[in-house]
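Hi U.,

Before I forget, here's the chain from the pilot set. I'm dumping it here mostly so it's searchable later in email.
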Amino acid sequence: MANKESLKQWQNAERTHLNHKFSDPLLIKLHEASQHGEFINIYYSGGSTPGESRKICPIKIFTVDGYDNYYVEAFCDKRNENRTFRVDRMSLEPITIPSYNYKDIPSYQSGKINPRSSNTGCLSSIIFVSLCYIIYFYFN
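Structure:
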């Protein structure tokens, strides 16, 4: 009974929409995504499936009178509806860069390069491809 009363109090409490510059990286990302209508990937430690990855499109960030947390209303791709998330229960999904073995590179297999030589062309290519992966995964 107390949980239902607490939920009802939270639902009826005054909300303050926040639309200003934030210093927290997560709030910055949520705000930017809400301004551009972009989806972001998060881990959410609350809800019915804590710790799962979710793809959300933030709509607004707000506070609730009488509560110390930030909240975000967002479209949840998993639930296919708007949901409310507590910001302190979410984190950005880390960027993963695909790893590979230089021995799998065709030019290494043909004997054209030696990764321990002074040939920096291959190293430059590997750095360039790695940066492309980072940029791709960061913005998608």
